[in-house]
Amino acid sequence: MQRPKTAVAGVLAGLTLAGSLLATAGPANATNADGPASAPTATTPKTGHQSKGKSLCERVPRIEKRINKALDRLNGDAHTRGSIARMAARVTKAQSKGHKEVATFLQDRLTHRKELKPNLTRQLHDLKAVATWCEKTKDDAKDGSGS
Hints:
Elements: H1 5-29, H2 54-74, H3 84-96, H4 100-146
Helix pairs in contact: 2-4, 3-4
């Protein structure tokens, strides 16, 4: 009796995975004569200095643009894809045609979109606080490097 090709392929994939795990387990468990090396953390990068949120500060404009774009889409009219008004119109249309299951599904999506709006507004407010912190940090860094 011949074995199915999928069973053989599954066994080979399992053996390959086990072999790769065993091959990498040896070096991972090896200890250094000086002791285990400490890995760099988020506050102490490889360079040895603290970045003070530089990467976050660089992303603030892009994040703000993305949140504003989502809010504009949610606040759009009935002709804007992804808007609350368009979804409400779809729910009304499904209810008027008697499509109860579709109307329930669309109503759940509408509820989710309505919940998104205050969350995005709060995130935008928090992001403005981060941008203020970034400006303050940048100003402090300029004042500290000049002396």
